[in-house]
Amino acid sequence: MKQIENMLGFRESIKVVDATLRDGGLVNDFFFDDEFVRRLYQANIDAGVDYMEMGYRASKKVFDETKFGKWKFSGDEHIREIVGDNNTPLKLAVMADIGRHDKNDFDECANSPVDLVRVATYIHQMPEAIDMIEDAHKKGYETSCNIMAVSNTQEQDLRVALEMVGQSSVDCIYIVDSFGSIYPEQMARIVDIYSDFSVKYGKKLGIHAHNNQQLAFANTIECCGDGVDWLDGTYMGMGRGAGNCAMELLLGFLKNPKYNVYPVLRFVEQNMVSLKQKGIVWGYDLQYLVTGLLNQHPRTAIQFTKEGRTDYSEFYKETFN
Amino acid sequence: MKQIENMLGFRESIKVVDATLRDGGLVNDFFFDDEFVRRLYQANIDAGVDYMEMGYRASKKVFDETKFGKWKFSGDEHIREIVGDNNTPLKLAVMADIGRHDKNDFDECANSPVDLVRVATYIHQMPEAIDMIEDAHKKGYETSCNIMAVSNTQEQDLRVALEMVGQSSVDCIYIVDSFGSIYPEQMARIVDIYSDFSVKYGKKLGIHAHNNQQLAFANTIECCGDGVDWLDGTYMGMGRGAGNCAMELLLGFLKNPKYNVYPVLRFVEQNMVSLKQKGIVWGYDLQYLVTGLLNQHPRTAIQFTKEGRTDYSEFYKETFN
Q: d(Cα B271, Cα B314) in Å, to the nearest integer?
């Protein structure tokens, strides 16, 4: 049993990462206006958040620029329009999604407002992910390796992948519960596996959770108690499908006095309630429970949502087969 | 660490209790129509639920019958209209809320469709609660003692109360996180305290969780892993304020083949989506996070909800002081 006494103290090594623009962007095709982004940036500074993910840096050779907001591509020039030289304690991140990125889109870190490159990869893409990590590392960036869909991965394969990335220059290795299908008790076991390699190679661990079974926050604090240091949250839980660990829950839980939940509450009321009212939909609903329970990608549940369906039992039968 | 291997098996001693009519009734003043209740009863039978709570049995000397639906009073005659003689494996419960009940409203169990009397009490009302437990026990009912607001209770007082109820005829002692303010790690500690007495006196333990911090399900399965046998859920999480552990999540998690999530999904789509559309409001929102975080009764958050407010940051300041 973990020690409750420690819940009144805090661990300096914990870092909170705001992934609202990136995972939330999957809900509205990244059409956040500049004022929203500017306010979110300020809220993160005021709340003591450690990293703000400014979106994906997707390749324009893969995606049509006219079909998405700019935070899908999140160029240095887009970011500078918001943050100038970012003379704040808040560090900035972008995500490179393996197979849909182009490492030539990354300038030297010294020329960029970006501090951290998060490399999202499926386990079968590890060599390309490591190539990207090394490229970003050489350019001077901090890097993380976000191995997606861990719930769908064989433990032996996972151990091979962790050995590979352990030997790389990466700073942090993420557990990513893409399907929102992991229970806290299982999460503790997964952290155990990751820890074998993070300890051996001196890497940090991170957690990125989804809320399909209302467990994103629970899994995040389970990981936190198990020694995982980098914790992803999104304002109001905004993210694909059932969304993510809510930043307001996470900052309410963390005891380091540098964190402050108040700016998060204010940002949500001033900027996100209206998003919901405009019909942007995310968050737990029974179709996401179904795909989470069945350990499947949420794409069918997202389609169910888009079609305005509520015949959950029919969806369960469709999805089960 | 708990043993993940066990997550594929199941414990025969687990009982699932549907509290939709009772805790959900707090949201709509118990105005469920008979067809809703009849279908819920059938869904519970089909889903393999062990107990269905048919509402409160509140005293008509305390509450005005014209202001509430009948499931606040849930007389034997009301219940019989739905279940007849209830020749099914599903057992039925009502809740007696100490100070707002009348033990004379309870006939002998042999004359009643009710199997279980759940006695809800604050810790300072223990003698009256035990009086009610003994009365119900003598009449032939199973009984539980649901000690509310455990997060607001001193451990020394809690141990005294558990010693008192341990010595009573009660069958099951409930942990009730009325304010939704307990984290899973704390829940494990609370189960430890309760277990000292449940083991000593041969009682079952139960968990009734609230979702203020999106932890109702997580806390319920934490308790389940720690040996708590009676697990409360409500369909779609319907319950006061942020609501409860969702039945669909709970039955998705439990592995005993007698449980089936499908009838729950079907009931929700056919009977509860429309409740939400009619404007009946429950479930996680930031005002409930605030009262949960501050370990307060949700009444101010419920009022905030009723007023249609979304100025969460102002509410935080009001509530903090």
A: 35
Identity of the residue in B4, B262, B311 whose CB atom sits nearest the CB atom of A313: B262
Provide the β-strand partners of residue A230: A15, A206
Helical H segments across chain B, by residue range: 20-23, 25-28, 34-47, 76-83, 126-138, 155-166, 184-201, 216-225, 247-253, 262-267, 273-277, 286-293, 299-306, 312-320
Collapsing DSSP to helix, strand or coil, B120 comes out as strand
Q: Using CA atoms, how far apart are residues A195 and B83, in angstroms rounded to an integer? A: 54
| Domain regions of chain A by residue span | 11-277, 286-320
Q: Any idea of the CA torsion for A319, B3, B5, B7, to the nearest 10 degrees?
A: -30
Structure tokens at A176: 């990513």
Quote the crossing angle between the two packed helices A34-47 and A76-83, to the nearest 10°.
Answer: 70
Confidence category of residue B7, pLDDT binned at 50, 70, 90: confident
According to DSSP, residue B103 is labeled G
Q: Residue B187: closest CA among chain A residues belongs to which residue?
A: A4
Q: Cβ contact (<8 Å) for B218 and A184?
A: yes
Alpha carbons A30 and B7: distance in angstroms, whole number: 39
**Mutant choice from B46, B181, B183 vs A, greatest count of A C-beta within 10 A:** B183
List, for residues B20-60, the tens digit of each pLDDT value. 999 999 999 999 999 999 999 999 999 999 999 999 999 99
Give the chain A residue whose CA is nearest to the CA of B268.
A312
> A52 and A13 in contact (C-beta within 8 Å)?
no
Q: Residue A12: exposed, middle, or buried by beta-carbon count in 10 A (0-12, 13-18, 19+)?
A: exposed
d(CA B244, CA A224): 24
A18, A255, B70, B102, B128 from B62: Cα distances, Å: 50, 43, 14, 9, 16
pLDDT mean over B147-162: 96
For residue B188, the chain A residues in CB contact (below 8 A) are: 1-2
- The two tokens of residue A254 are 């963390």
CATH architecture of the domain with residue range A11-277: Alpha-Beta Barrel (3.20)
